[in-house]
Amino acid sequence: MNKKLNTALFIIGASILNVILMVVLMTIGLALISLVIPKNIPPNIASALFILVFLLSVAGSFFAYHKAIKFISGKINMDKYFHPIFNSRKR
Question: What does pTM read for this prediction?
Answer without folding.
Answer: 0.77
